[in-house]
Design brief:
four-stranded mixed sheet; 2 helices; 2,3-Dihydroxybiphenyl 1,2-Dioxygenase, domain 1; about 150 residues
Length: about 150
């Protein structure tokens, strides 16, 4: 059964969209959609595929071990070693509450961090969590900017 498409005329396609190979697309949908708040723009679940969106942050999920995967090396858990995907959100609170209610462990607890960005610092409130296959996701809400000390 396919989800209703949200790919309506005002849908904006991101110019860079990671496609993650996953073990079980339904388990991944539970994490990304149900716990983290992404919506399904469209899917082909019979092919193990879903295209997700959260306020313009977009990601594709594709079940591995299907006939058409572009695998360049061994797929060993945790997947995505050496990369984290930053997802900009308005606030991290609802995602944290949803993950806590599901007893989903955090990789890094929430923190406030200021990063130098040119002549100013940009502040974020962020945390890290792993999806069912071990991909590392960093949810980040902007706090604003300040002059560098």
């Amino acid at each position: 059964m396919s989800s209703v498409s949200t790919a309506v005329p005002d849908f904006t396609w991101a110019r860079l969209v990671p496609e993650l190979l996953v073990t079980d697309v339904n388990a991944s949908l539970h994490f990304w959609r149900d716990l983290c708040g992404f919506s399904v723009a469209f899917d082909r679940l019979h092919e193990g595929f879903a295209y997700l969106d959260l306020d313009g942050a977009q990601i594709m999920l594709e079940e591995r071990d299907r006939s058409r995967n572009w695998i360049v090396g061994p797929m060993e858990a945790p997947f995505g070693r050496g990369i984290n995907f930053q997802v900009g959100v308005r606030t991290i609170a609802p995602i944290l509450a949803s993950l806590a209610a599901a007893d989903w462990p955090l990789f890094m607890k929430p923190e406030e961090k200021w990063y130098r960005t040119g002549d100013v610092e940009t502040g974020v409130r962020q945390f890290l969590v792993q999806d069912p296959d071990g991909y590392l996701i960093r949810f980040s809400a902007r706090l604003g900017q300040r002059r560098t000390p």
